Amino acid sequence: xxxxxxxxxxxxxxxxxxxxxxxxxxxxxxxxxxxxxxxxxxxxxxxxxxxxxxxxxxxxxxxxxxxxxxxxxxxxxxxxxxxxxxxxxxxxxxxxxxxxxxxxxxxxxxxxxxxxxxxxxxxxxxxxxxxxxxxxxxxxx
Length: 141
Fold this sequence. Notes:
It contains seven helices and no strands. It has helices spanning about 1-5, 10-25, 35-40, 45-50, 55-80, 85-110, 115-140.
């Protein structure tokens, strides 16, 4: 495992983290799912706009760091199993996003009594994120 961790390309992980973070911004933007996502969470536009900038900045930093951690994990997994090529990375990323991360998101959603719609938005984000990041990491190697 240590060899796999040492073989990870830090530049690739950082760039793919940035791309993944931007994907999350797009996913939760008015262009895609901001309105239904906020409605399911019962967050009004007024409440969102009233949030202090320092709180938003702190959440963005934490979100970026968690994206960095998950991207690093995906890169290590690819190193261990030898995933190569963009299509192989996309397939493995989608698999991880749906079967591992997505199933855990839905499990939490069941216990937190989240709606099917909110679970679908959240899981869709994870599957899309991991597929995109997997494709780029696979192609990069």
